[in-house]
Amino acid sequence: MKFKTTQLRDAITFALVAGATSAAGTGIALAQSEQEATTLDRIEVTGSRIRSVDAESSQPVLVLDRAAIEKQGLTSVAEVLQRISANGSNINRTFNNGGDGSATVSLRNLGASRTLVLVDGRRWVQGLGGSVDLNTIPSAMIERIEVLKDGASSIYGSDAIAGVVNIITRRDYEGAEARVYYGQFSQGDGERAAVEATLGAGNDRSNVVISLSRVDEKEVSAGDRAISRVPSFRRDPAGFSGFSSNGRIWNNGVDPDNVGGPGSNSIVVRPGATGTGPSDDPRYAIGQFQPFAAGQDAYNFAADNYLLTPQTRTSLYMKGRHEVTDNLTFVADALYNERRSEQQLAGFPLNGGVSNNDFMSGDSYYNPYNTLYGGDGRDVAWSHRLTEQDRVYQQNVKTFHVYAGIEGNFEFADRLFNWDVGYNFNRSDQEDAQIGDVNVLNVRAGVGPSELRDGRVVCVDAPGGNIIDGCVPFNPLSPAGGVTQEMLDYLLFTAQDAFQGRSESFTANISGEIVELPGGMMGFAAGVESRKESGFDRPDAFVAAGFTSGNSRQPTSGAYDLDEIYAELLIPVLADVPLADLLEFSVASRYSDYSNFGDTTNSKAGFKWKPVESLLVRGNWAQGFRAPPISTLFGGQSDSFISFGDICSEDFSGRNAAIAANCAAAGAPAGFIQQTNAGPGFNGQTLYPFQVGGNPDVGPEESVSKTLGLVFSPSFVDGLNLSLDWWSIKIDNAITTLSTAFIVEQCYSAGDQALCGLITRRPEDFQIGNISLTPQNLSVVDVEGYDFNVSYRMPETQYGSFGFTLDTSYVSKYDQQITAASEAEKFSGRYLDRDPYWRLRGNVSLDWQLGDFGATFSSRYFSGLYEDCAFVAFCTAPDRGDFGRNKLGATTYHDVQARYNLPWDATIKAGVTNLFDKEPPVSYTTFANSFDPQYDVPGRFMYMEYIQRF
């Protein structure tokens, strides 16, 4: 069936059907300068299952077609999506410590697990935490990307709270195409190379598309950029690690009982010394040591890290269709994608005697207090940075996808109906290797009693006793680089972990028309889905047993299934009457029955009103929900060394009478001081690992989203389209794990006994030994803002064709209550460690085409932020807020690309990202690199691309 369209309708539909020109941010494309009445087939737009010729939605949709994506010079889907203005903070390749090679998208900065990712309208495989790794989706297969910036649980089910990303793959392609891409930073590192080949063939009834791609992205070392080569920019050696690359000990004669704690009057091996031998310093009575001084002995761990992590991705994608009859089509697609990625940290900071009682035995051959050297045979606390072996974390992730289904249509009562049934299968298998972690059992044995026998140092069970077979004595007092290979082989091991995420579903949908109303035909869509989600995390047996230097964790395994049914109506009330060129309403509802927490029903209602043909007023109200993911429900217990401040510590500056009384009632001794990994004093990393894990009683999050907007396409300016949308999302029962700081503060300041019950203190010294940290439905999140977008294609001139696009998102409110009863904390405009809350993000581009020549100049804008002042000397506003404030200035990046169509049906492109070498704003609360990983890695990135068509 064919339908007549209007000018505004054509402008939008042209983008979705033809994919000729992207309008960043609005889903509005640039229509032809002279529009005539045309006829178009029905299409389905993200956010609705009803097929319609009218691509104008009551919800804001951003469309990025293949041409627009290629103008950005990027090599991954993640990078494309992370640049859109509605995106927030996500994990990406710049996450080294804490990253795993994956990349996500977080619409409205509400978290990746609250953004639903679809491929061809169907769910993609999720990780155990509920988010989709975009690196499992190769860019070679993409035809366009549609981003619904509104809730859509009534249409798609769980996770569509912040919005929906729908990646549409290539279909009905015929011909062949090969692409070669190469780029690197101006510093000569971070090389990226990509090769892609696509082949399509078909006839009137069938089509097959095959795409093969390989992407190789190299690392950038943190030591190769000034802003990241030290832990805190412009403050070196501040922030350097007290774990010296030369062995360090306490209990050194000046402070024999270690009264001052770790770091108090400690001594360190002198550069070039062996760490053992007679004394040449009368103050210490031990040899070849000197007092530890941070300025010369602390270790700069930052330079050993990756700033941009390496990975390779290899993929094979196939898609086909065959029209069995004129009304019945078999469709199928399949994908295999393999990602190999890596992160690197400085060698492990080993220690013994302070937090784990692994003192160096007084009978160790390497203990300078050994009676062999005239000492008193005392055990000593020690530390040593294993610079001889970096810690390397590698991932091999294999993703499998298969879809097979039947699509058809039929006529009944002079009405056309479309239907489809299908089976969707996704699985991701991940194998991790952790290289450079330490076997703590062997460390314990290695620093135990040892003696020199027959010219060789051996482990013994007691002085003069039996040799312990297989044991290698360890000298933690070795100078930098002095740990022998034999010692390393004994101490280190490689952990092997396995993960899997699996999803399979059966779906059936039907859509069509019911009755004719004054505004047109009432449309409907309905369907059912049965889905099962499962996954596991199987850590190395040594990791699970807690015998490693890294964080231990228990296995995770679980599954749940659900059945769903939905229905949707499109109700055209008026059309072609005064003040109502169109008035249309839409309603939808979805019922979901989960095996683990019960059922839920979520609905939506929207409207579209055109008082005149060139102006559209649109609005939407929608309920949403997010089912808890497998790791939240079934996560095994794991260790976490958390940084926090114990407000019972008497050096806490905010200590008052109420806190003192509550701490005393809990058993705090007089003069109590918190002990941390860095030494005594308030605030620091705990000496003892806290336990975190899942909670099978967690229920779903619930939300309500609202939008109201205008779309204006003035008839007096051909090619100009503007849109302004207000949006609001409120999430109740948000799943959260209370922070250690919140639990401690509410316990000892507010006297909340329920939270006090989560704290376990060591009876011998009152230090906090554990805090129960499990996810719960506690929080409330309330966000609100505006999207403003412009696209304009100027009339053709003798100097070529010019196009302009603007895509902006402004967050006016981002409030979060940790619990429903607590006061809301305001985040908009603030910066937290690796968690920015920009008020305004925007993208603007100017595109030019003249014959075979073309160029695009674009800019990406990030508004300024403020962070709590970590160091008064560097604060821009030390008198503001409770701790003073430091401003992170607004940042704008400029990119350029030029291209030329060669006579032999080829195109060559060259471009520069971050053309003016803009540095990211310096942060003094960001971990490790002094700038947030959402900003570009410093340096110009230059690339070239060649495309050959056959």
UniProtKB/TrEMBL annotation:
Record domain TonB-dependent receptor plug: where: 56-164
This protein's UniProt keywords: Cell outer membrane, Membrane, Receptor, Signal, TonB box, Transmembrane, Transmembrane beta strand, Transport
Signal peptide (from-to): 1-31
InterPro entries attached to this UniProt entry: Beta-barrel_TonB (IPR000531), Beta-barrel_TonB_sf (IPR036942), Plug_dom (IPR012910), Plug_dom_sf (IPR037066), TonB-dep_rcpt-like (IPR039426)
UniProt membrane topology term: Multi-pass membrane protein
Primary location class: membrane
Domain TonB-dependent receptor-like beta-barrel: 511-915
Subcellular location: Cell outer membrane
Pfam families on file: Plug, TonB_dep_Rec_b-barrel
Family, as annotated: Belongs to the TonB-dependent receptor family.
Protein name: TonB-dependent receptor
Originating species: Luteimonas fraxinea
